[in-house]
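Hey team,

Filing this mostly as a record. A colleague (T.K.) asked me to run one chain through the structure pipeline before their review meeting, and I want the input and output archived in the tracker in case anyone asks later how it was produced. No errors, nothing strange. Just documentation.

Input sequence:
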Amino acid sequence: MNKAQQIAMAVVVANLILLSLFPPYNYVSMQYGNIPTFDGFYFAFGTHQNRVLNGDFFALELIVVLVNAAIALLLLRTPPLREPPKLPGGNRRQRTVLMLVAINLVVVLLFPPFEFFSAITKAALPTFEGFYFVFGDNSQRQMVTPILYIEVALIIINGALLWLLFRDKPKEASAEELRDLAQQIRASQKK
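Output structure:
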């Protein structure tokens, strides 16, 4: 692990500690039929009456941090010595895909889907009213975690497919290189 990757991992560990110290909470109100609504981020070791940990959103936060850590490790890796020196992390298009995936994941968590209490249903895939800033006043809204999970999964899947699509094509061997390889194989078989 090179110096840049060590710094990236230190930032990841700091992010994980911060996320664990201030996890997301839902407020459970009797006024709304004990339906939990996203209330904000509170200190983990404090007392929070009528609030429960929003495990789905917390899991998504952890997934996004770990995926971004993997992206950072790919972008900051040192190229092998056998190859001619090139920028780490794949070619330019692959690095662009990785950066866009990281940015998309952060934006999706900053503006998750919410629905108002009047629209809450027991459907497998609920409807939603819109995307609202996660640190704004969302006391009258409930976060729609199934849609948030779908968003994150699609971003990761699309990023992985684009990464594979933009990989460098393997270099084809010339006729001379094939002849040399055949001679080396014959020489090694005679010994």
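Quick notes for T.K.: Helices lie at 3-21, 55-75, 92-110, 145-165, 175-190. Strands lie at 24-29, 35-41, 51-53, 113-116, 130-131, 141-143.
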